[in-house]
From TrEMBL:
Any Pfam family the entry gives: SPT_ssu-like
Protein name: Uncharacterized protein
Spans traversing the lipid bilayer: 78-99
Source organism of this protein record: Penicillium alfredii
Upper lineage: Eukaryota, Fungi, Dikarya, Ascomycota, Pezizomycotina
InterPro entries per the UniProt record, alphabetical: Ser_palmitoyltrfase_ssu-like
Superkingdom assignment: Eukaryota
Length: 147
């Protein structure tokens, strides 16, 4: 009598009952790293759009399982997903709003370190300051110099 050892990573010879939807089981079987041979995947060539949408569904399933949305009701999922979308959109908006001036400031400091001239002088010579610069510091500097 020999005991059969089985790893978590090898497919089971016995049938198991899955509690996941059939579409999820299909996706897991399709993208599983334990496929027996590549000849089965070649015979099942799919449309690139179908593969893309299958991949998106698989990633959404992984997101649900990882962050616990899998056990929530549809209304709770809606609230949680809305929260995630709002936070990500605010981060993206802040990135678009605040990153370009920060990048310009850091580049002007790098120019000063490399050349010894201020970034405003170099920006004025190159014409960059007229397009992307902030005119407020120039007005403050002019008012400070005049008595």
């Amino acid at each position: 009598m020999t005991a059969e050892m089985q790893s978590f990573y090898t497919p089971s010879t016995s049938t198991h009952i899955s509690h996941a939807p059939t579409a999820v089981d299909e996706l897991i079987n399709k993208y599983s790293s334990t496929m027996a041979s590549t000849s089965t995947s070649r015979s099942q060539r799919r449309n690139p759009f179908q593969r893309f949408f299958d991949r998106v569904r698989l990633e959404y399933y992984r997101y649900e399982v990882t962050f616990g949305l899998y056990v929530m009701t549809p209304s709770e999922k809606l609230v949680a997903n809305a929260f995630v979308i709002v936070v990500l959109s605010l981060l993206f908006w802040a990135l678009l709003l605040y990153f370009p001036p920060l990048l310009y400031q850091k580049i002007s400091r790098l120019v000063w370190l490399l050349t010894g001239h201020s970034g405003q002088e170099v920006g004025t010579v190159l014409g960059i300051l007229d397009k992307h610069g902030n005119p407020l510091p120039a007005l403050v500097a002019e008012n400070a110099l005049t008595p």
